[in-house]
Design goal:
single chain; 23% helix; 4-stranded antiparallel beta sheet; 24% strand
Length: 823
């Protein structure tokens, strides 16, 4: 049945309830008629004006048989020569054939008496390839035999194929009393199961034209199934399965596109009868009708040693079926063979005679006995797990399964056998051997992994879990090729496999991860998976400080650096993390844990960690920053990373309880109250500069020296004493200045500077550093400030009662009751 071209549909059963009713009625009238289940419509859309077809069938009333089908080759149902024969029968021969099959018509609608018609039409070309599908056809009213003849000539499809298709679809070639439905859906064209038949193609004439054109379209338009490897199911029910077929010609491909199922063993055993719930019959019946009505080529002869083997396995009733050609010799090294519908029999140069199934031969090609596998040395053997078969050849074993047919060459076969072959975790091969890998290696893919042949000429299986850890670089990466088999039976159900550049471990709870050689050595040093580390839980991670790497394990870590490769336990790493791991002052480990009783120590580049009762502590180290952090325990844990780029190249880091600052003056901790005061003086950028000592505690107070002064803290209040810096001294002694409201600004006259504060200003010049009150500066501004005749101040304000004076280079300012005047 053909789904409408404008609405491609899923494959469906093609006989409607009406057709089934017609079949039942025919059975009641004729008595000897056996109705075969309908075939399935082909799915899929096309760019051409035609779409896929399917086909139901009725048994020929004169050919009710129970004998098994003989000679059916699912890969070569009919030859292209017979199928695409545009001169197979004349109009008169077609009429004579219909008369012989139908005889006396009971309702005037039989094909041998029916007159039908079509309209004339131009030639049809494929929209996708440009190939001719059917040449022009002259229409009009005519006998069915004449119409079949004209369509045969125009489309190049044998009238015998059309007659058989009419029979397998609606039983019309033999029907003495066809129904209107049978005639409307004569070829099953554009009659989907899910919608009414397209009225544009209803009737014998349009049906014959449409169906025949479709059979030609598959080849002309390269549409749907084509010769080569195709999966063909046994029925629409997916659980019924199917097989991959190496379809050998366009005619067979067209039949599977028209009716997309192959008969299963039950259907073939039933002849024209009913098989089982997974049987389909369209292509079986096509073969049966064609063979019984018209016959195929002359039957080849089976003789000699080949006949002995053929008879030994059951002859035509065996899986080989009927021969399709005579014995042929002159093969590689003097061998011979004969082809059969279901396979071949070969005579090897050594004299052995072996049958080869079609499925096995697919994995033997394309060079067959001329290729690297040589001749078979045993017969096809089936009954393997999941319905598989195998056959031994001179240089390989070929396996056939639902995964396809593939050769496993001898070296890889040894590795395959060591892994329990198809019964083991590898399962069946799913691809042919692939070479051209790094350093000339090869591999072959299986259901559960791969087998690799390394450059040294040894082959080892790599199962999926191990392969996942080997990815993404595989043999091109640091691990190289496998050099040993997968070893299991480790603790917790673990396994491992050795590679050129290390090991891969796999365990149920930790997954599969690779260890390069250096990490594997450090791992072994702590008793590998049986030791405290357990199994690896991550892959190796690099890009750490100084080019270091690490890898996590169930019970710890391994780190590598220029200092070496060493294991690190979790409690040590937790402490190390407080010091920024390898990026911090501790650096990398320089030894493995040195155990002494219930305690152990481990040295790092910047210090030593001691672990007692599971608690890790860090001793003082040469690094000043680390020393300060250790000795000032009130600092707590860090809350930021170390930040550098401060004034003069200094650095700092914030902690829970304070800060550490480093500069040319040293590395010292600073408490929050000291830093708050320091911030009022612009921190390290101001006149106080950097700290030059750690806090010196005395009772409830403490002091801390800076480059520009000393901070004293009493009862949590920090104060700054006078310092050597004149600017700072002025700021401290003139408390009325308050906090700064601008940064220090320089570039004034004579290289002077100034800074604004809440209560006034500080000016510096060659005359010194002095504070200036707002009322004095307002008067000074009238004389152009430092650029005018007054110049810079030469003293701080000198208070006397409610008045004060301040001297400048060019005069003295007197302030009385807030009013400034120049003396």
């Amino acid at each position: 049945m053909v789904p409408r071209s404008q609405a491609p549909r899923r494959a469906v059963w093609t006989a409607s309830r009406t057709a089934v009713a017609a079949i039942v009625a025919s059975i009641a009238l004729i008595g000897s008629l056996i109705a075969a289940n309908p075939a399935i419509a082909a799915p899929g859309a096309t760019t051409d004006a035609t779409t896929a077809v399917g086909g139901g069938s009725l048994a020929d009333t004169g050919m009710v048989k129970a004998a098994a089908v003989v000679g059916f080759n699912p890969e070569n149902i009919i030859s292209d020569a017979l199928f695409y024969d545009g001169a197979a029968m004349s109009s008169a021969e077609i009429q004579t054939f219909l008369d012989s099959k139908i005889g006396t018509c009971r309702n005037g609608k039989c094909l041998n008496v029916l007159t039908t018609g079509i309209s004339s039409r131009d030639a049809v070309y494929s929209q996708s390839t440009g190939n001719l599908i059917c040449s022009a056809i002259q229409g009009g009213s005519m006998k069915v035999s004449e119409l079949i003849y004209r369509v045969q000539v125009a489309c190049g499809i044998s009238a015998k194929v059309i007659l058989v298709t009419l029979q397998k679809e609606q039983g019309l070639t033999t029907s003495k009393e066809p129904s209107d439905w049978n005639l409307k859906a004569a070829m099953g064209a554009s009659c989907p199961d899910t919608a009414p038949c397209d009225p544009a193609f209803a009737g014998v004439g349009p049906q014959i034209l449409k169906g025949t054109q479709q059979l030609k379209t598959y080849k002309a338009a390269k549409f749907a199934k084509q010769p080569g490897r195709n999966y063909v199911g046994y029925s629409p029910t997916e659980s019924c399965g199917g097989t991959y077929l190496n379809i050998q010609n366009y005619a067979t491909a067209a039949l599977y596109s028209y009716t997309p199922y192959q008969p299963n063993a039950a259907a073939l055993r039933a002849g024209y009868g009913i098989g089982d719930s997974c049987s389909s019959y369209g292509n079986r019946n096509f073969y049966q009708y064609f063979a019984d009505w018209f016959g195929f080529a002359e039957q080849p002869v089976v003789a000699g040693a080949i006949k002995a083997r053929y008879d030994a396995i059951g002859g035509r009733l065996s899986y080989l079926g009927l021969p399709t050609a005579n014995e042929e010799c002159g093969l590689a090294r003097g061998g011979c063979y004969q082809p059969f519908a279901g396979g071949y029999i070969f005579i090897s140069p050594a004299g052995g005679v072996f049958d080869v199934s079609q499925a096995i031969r697919a994995g033997w090609g394309p060079s067959f006995e001329w290729g690297p596998h040589g001749y078979p040395t045993g017969n096809t053997t089936c009954g393997l797990t999941k319905g598989g078969c195998y056959q031994v050849f001179e240089n390989a074993v070929i396996y056939s399964s639902a995964m396809g047919s593939y050769a496993v060459e001898s070296l890889m076969q040894r590795a395959y056998s060591a892994a329990e072959a198809e019964w083991g975790s590898l399962g069946y091969p799913v691809a042919a051997i692939q070479c051209g890998l790094s350093r000339g290696g090869c591999y072959q893919a299986f259901e559960g992994g791969q087998i690799f042949r390394n450059p040294a000429g040894y082959a080892f299986a790599v199962l999926s879990d191990i392969r996942g850890a080997w990815a993404p670089d595989f043999e091109w990466g640091a691990l190289g090729y496998p050099v040993g088999v997968r070893e299991c039976g480790l603790t917790d159900g673990g396994c491992y496999q050795a590679f050129e550049g290390g090991l891969i471990f796999s365990a149920p709870r930790s997954g599969a991860h690779a260890l390069t050689t250096d990490f594997a050595a450090a791992y072994s040093a702590v008793n590998a998976e049986y030791g405290v580390l357990g199994y690896p839980t991550t892959d190796r991670v690099c890009g750490l400080a100084g080019g270091g790497c690490y890898q996590a394990f169930q019970g710890g870590y391994i780190y590598s650096s220029s200092a070496g490769v060493f294991a690190v336990r979790p409690e040590v790493r937790a402490l190390w993390a407080q010091y920024d791991l390898e990026w911090g002052s501790l650096g990398y480990p320089t030894s493995s844990p040195a155990v002494s009783g219930s305690s152990y120590t481990q040295t790092f580049q910047g210090g030593t960690v001691t672990v007692a009762d599971g608690v890790a502590t860090l001793t003082a180290a040469a690094d000043p920053w680390l020393n300060e952090r250790l000795t000032q325990s009130w600092l707590g844990s860090p809350i930021t990373q170390r930040v550098c780029g401060l004034a003069g190249g200094g650095c700092y880091q914030a902690f829970q309880g304070g800060y550490i600052y480093s500069s040319s003056a040293g590395v010292f901790a600073v408490r929050p109250e000291v830093r708050a005061l320091w911030a009022q003086y612009d921190l390290e950028w101001g006149s106080v500069g950097y700290p030059t000592s750690s806090p010196a505690v005395s009772g409830s107070s403490y002091t801390q020296t800076f480059q520009g002064g000393t901070v004293t803290v009493a009862d949590g209040v920090a104060t700054l004493t006078a310092a050597a810096d004149p600017w700072l001294n002025e700021r401290l002694t003139q408390s009325w200045l308050g906090s700064p409201i601008t940064q220090r600004v320089c570039g004034l006259a004579g290289g002077g500077c100034y800074q604004a504060f809440q209560g006034g200003y500080i000016y510096s010049s060659s005359a010194g550093v002095f504070a200036v009150r707002p009322e004095v500066r307002a008067l000074w501004a009238q004389y152009d400030l430092e650029w005018g005749s007054l110049g810079y101040p030469t003293s701080s304000p000198a208070v006397s009662g409610s008045s004060y004076t301040q001297t400048f280079q060019g005069g003295t300012v007197i302030v009385t009751e807030g009013v400034a005047r120049l003396d």
